[in-house]
């Protein structure tokens, strides 16, 4: 089974209305549809662009204001998923639940369903500057092209949570990310490669590019999309199926062949998933 995926290197720029945000989002989705894409991944925190709209006095909105756009955001992506008959992983959007803020990945199904996964591991900046709360559980999600998980940025740096996702049957990890410099970018990128090797899975990664001069902690972005594979003979030697140009506004598209994953798990040069020493360390199968 194959699935065609597109990852958006989303260009953050100051906007004046929700309609501008909606037009930019649909531009990427329409472009991906021209390639026959079935899954589109947007980056983490791409909806912070809405904070640049500002208030009546011209001041940028705060992270506390962002959940006020949740209904509009969800209605937009529900309609776009149906219109283009795609699964849209709408990056992450900050929602408010029981008085707490959660950085939450959303997947919009073509039939109108919405799957949500709150970010599980929260960075120090998210805690101290934006008072984010951590998600308290991992889910995997069935689609007509297989089972996937959504793990956001910092999450991919923790091998245990990805191991859990694979144990629950996920073959593809969609990883929306947002990093402001090369150090953060390469932490996420290198650990995405490690998770693909350890679990013999695909990792689809993307990040924000551009800048929001009026929005705190979103003034700088360093991003690149990539489809990352295990390092074995059926796949490219560097474990990169496709990747974008760093910090460019663009879409990256590739086909993920799930049968190749099943093949290398059974008779690859290495069989890392099968060879786990569960007699020595905890596992989640």
The pLDDT mean sits at 96
Amount of beta strand? 25-35%
User: What is the count of helical runs?
Assistant: 6
Q: What's the Cα radius of gyration?
A: 18 Å
Question: What's the number of domains?
Answer: 1
Largest sheet: 7 strands, mixed
CATH-defined superfamily: Carbon-nitrogen hydrolase
Shape: globular
Percent of residues in helical segments? 25-40%
Structural class: alpha/beta
Low-pLDDT ranges: none
Terminal CA distance reads 23 Å
Indicate the CATH architecture.
4-Layer Sandwich
Domain CN hydrolase: 3-258
Pfam families: CN_hydrolase
Keywords: Hydrolase
GO molecular function: hydrolase activity
In short:
The protein has 285 residues and is an alpha/beta fold. The chain has one domain (2-267): 4-Layer Sandwich (Nitrilase/N-carbamoyl-D-aminoacid amidohydrolase). The chain contains six helices and 15 strands.
């Amino acid at each position: 089974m194959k699935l065609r995926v597109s990852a958006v290197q989303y260009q953050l720029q100051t906007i004046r209305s929700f309609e501008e945000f909606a037009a930019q989002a649909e531009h990427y989705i329409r472009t991906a549809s021209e390639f026959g894409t079935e899954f589109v991944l947007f980056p983490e925190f791409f909806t912070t662009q809405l904070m640049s709209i500002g208030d009546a006095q011209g001041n940028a909105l705060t992270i506390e204001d962002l959940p006020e756009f949740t209904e509009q955001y969800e209605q937009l992506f529900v309609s776009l998923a149906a219109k283009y008959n795609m699964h849209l992983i709408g990056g992450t959007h900050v929602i408010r639940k029981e008085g707490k803020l959660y950085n939450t990945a959303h997947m919009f199904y073509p039939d109108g369903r919405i799957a949500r996964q709150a970010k599980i591991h929260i960075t120090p900046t998210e805690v101290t500057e934006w008072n984010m709360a951590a998600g308290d559980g991992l889910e995997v999600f069935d689609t007509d092209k297989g089972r996937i998980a959504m793990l956001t940025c910092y999450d991919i740096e923790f091998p245990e949570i990805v191991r859990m996702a694979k144990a629950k049957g996920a073959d593809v990890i969609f990883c929306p990310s947002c990093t402001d410099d090369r150090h953060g970018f390469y932490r996420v990128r290198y650990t995405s490669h490690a998770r693909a090797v350890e679990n013999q899975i695909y990792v689809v990664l993307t990040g924000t590019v551009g800048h929001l001069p009026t929005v705190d902690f979103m003034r700088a972005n360093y991003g690149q999309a990539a489809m990352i594979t295990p390092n074995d003979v059926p796949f490219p030697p560097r474990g990169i199926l496709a990747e974008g140009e760093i910090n460019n506004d663009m879409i990256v598209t590739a086909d993920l062949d799930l049968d190749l994953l099943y093949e290398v798990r059974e008779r690859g040069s290495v069989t890392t998933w099968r060879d786990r020493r569960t007699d020595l360390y905890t596992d989640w199968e």
